[in-house]
Amino acid sequence: MNHFPQLTPIENKLKQIYQQSLERSLQEPCDREDVMDVLLASYTITNDNNITKSLTTHIDEQTFILENMDISFVRHARYTPAFWHRHDFFEIIFVQNGTCTNYVLGRSIPMRTGDICIMAPDVTHSLSAFHDEDYIINILIRKSTFEQSFFGLLDSDTILSDFFKRTFYQTSEIPYLLFHSENDPVLTDLIERAYAECGQQKRYRKQMVNTLLSLFFINLFRRHEQHIEFSNIHLNSADENLMYILRYMQANFKTVSLKELSNLFNYSERQLQRIIQSATGHTFIENIQNQKMKLASELLIHSTLSVSEISERIGFQSLNNFRKIFFKYFNMTPSEYRRANI
Questions:
Q1: Rounded Cα–Cα distance for residues 24 and 314 (Å)
Q2: Could you please report the per-residue DSSP string of 211-234?
Q3: Of the candidates 88, 67, 97, which has an alpha carbon nearest to the alpha carbon of residue 140?
Q4: C-beta of residue 250 within 8 angstroms of C-beta of residue 292
Q5: Contacts of 214 (CB under 8 A, 6+ apart)
Q6: Residue 64 confidence (pLDDT)
Q7: Which ranges form a coiled coil (predicted)?
Q8: What's the pLDDT at 234?
Q9: What is the Cα gyration radius of the chain?
Q10: pLDDT in tens, 44-91
Q11: Please, what is the Cα angle at 118 between 247 and 271, to 5 degrees?
């Protein structure tokens, strides 16, 4: 995949129809029925039933993901009319070369080389790539596999995990994340290796591809967390600071205060409350207490520290206050929780 292939017979036919029918604006979002003549004239020249199955407006996992696999790679056919569709799996759109436009509901998302867009399931969208040099890889992932690979990385980061879960599952806005990776060679290499592995009948193929996906997510966050474009929540100028705010809260949850955040990031406390609640679905206090309670429950099970020592370690100045909040979360005292889970 170091060179970009010539147009396939299907793509040549699609391009020919596009150039002969410029007045139809096939590169713009449309209903499938309006372009079905183009799709049938182009995609059926190979007599491949699997290809024609993909022309539906609601694509399920079985269409593209093999029964013995969790992930599939599909190269987007250049010059395919940008018809609306949705699918019941997660999709990563990776622009390896060129440009494309991802249309989601009423919004257009321009993407360039190196951009990575993670789409939640059941989101109606269309993809437009109408240049010979456009090389777009769609990575299709079962929901269960995505949750294990993606959210598994954030298991101990309650604040960040809540933010991303809200992004994909709970927001009424557009559930996607867009990373500008600037054509990162590390990410490109991982995708190329996983793509190649998918096409080979080797032992442990499924496990290898899943492992490469986990490595992809690790490097995506490690190297490009600060390059995420948030379009699912209304944060305006706070976009560029959101991850830093959440990361700071996560790293300093034992002692951080809203006033400290306000001084550090130069927002009013009221602005910060709005930003944090919009991003995570919880207030500042709720986020901090969630993280403290998670750590407290782990220490009660996996350490021999006394309740008093745990209270102090996670940042409570009052033992009584710790016991009160813990009971609110778990409907039992810390001591009862320890006895019930050992």
A1: 62
A2: HHHHHHHHHHHHHHGGGEE--SS-
A3: 88
A4: no
A5: 149, 152, 153
A6: 83
A7: none
A8: 42
A9: 24
A10: 876 655 555 566 667 778 778 888 999 999 999 999 999 999 988 999
A11: 40
> Amino acid identity, residue 211?
T
Three-state SS at 120? coil
**How far, in Å, CA of 81 to CA of 122, rounded?**
20
Nearest to 140 by CA among 204, 77, 195, 80: 195
Q: Which two tokens stand for residue 178?
A: 């867009």
Q: pLDDT for 164-213, tens place per residue?
A: 777 777 655 657 888 999 889 999 999 999 999 998 989 999 999 999 99
Instruction: Find out whether 68 and 206 touch, Cβ atoms under 8 Å.
Output: yes
Q: Which two tokens stand for residue 191?
A: 């995708």
DSSP code at position 200: S
Token digits for 73? Answer: 């790679």
pLDDT band per the 50, 70, 90 thresholds, residue 154: confident
Mean pLDDT for 272-288 is 90
